[in-house]
Amino acid sequence: MIKKIIKLFLLFILIGIATSAAVNIYMVSYAAPYVFNSRAELKKAAAESGGYTALVPGAMVYGNRLSSVLQDRVDEGIDCYNEGIKDGFCTALLLSGDHGKKWYDEVNAMRLYVLRTAPYIDRERIFLDHAGFDTYDSLYRAREIFKAEKLIVITQRFHSYRAVYIGRKSGLEVYALALSEDKYAERLQFSWALREYLARVKAFADTAVQRKPRFLGEPVPVSGSGLKTWDIFKDK
User: Fold this and answer.
1) Is the pTM of this model over 0.70?
2) How many secondary structure helices (H) and strands (E) does the chain include?
3) Could you tell me if 99 and 108 are in contact, meaning their C-beta atoms sit under 8 angstroms apart?
4) Which pLDDT tens digit goes with each residue over 132-147?
5) Residue ranges of domains in the chain, CATH in brackets
């Protein structure tokens, strides 16, 4: 009896490993044609249309200080918006992250960084998503709350494939601008890869059932003013 239980347990483990591997291979291969290393490559691939929203997914913050990973994303988001606004390619900047607690606020930390770094950006074109608790929520809310149809997700390469997969399987026209991870320690890159391996399996399931995010709310279209999404009292 015990041997049978052990065999069944091992069988379930093998099935789980094989399934997760298949999901990862499928997701990366599906998303790869829409992931680019530079703005020039991305714009060439999406040259037939404009009106994209640059989506910057959140990551760790320390008070109002951005982690290096998040700063890389926001810096590229600023550059992408600045370049794209000139020809209508990129028309809005959507900062999406975790603001589920009063003492932890990725979104306003990003906003304040943008205002310090690029004060010339039209504030009405900066949208804040306070309930982007994970990548799936950010993409779902971009569609349902912000009424975005075309997105450029700006994030590190390991994360790009999952973001593109979720977005395109949800009916959005999504590209990713993949940022290099080379400057980070190998052990950190390994931990990201391991976590991402598991996160892709969850994203696959979430997308398959079209799970609803924790919060939705009233629409704030990116065609309007982003100031409606701001916490004005946090400008200090």
Assistant:
1) yes
2) 7, 8
3) yes
4) 999 999 999 999 999 9
5) 2-234 (3.40.50)
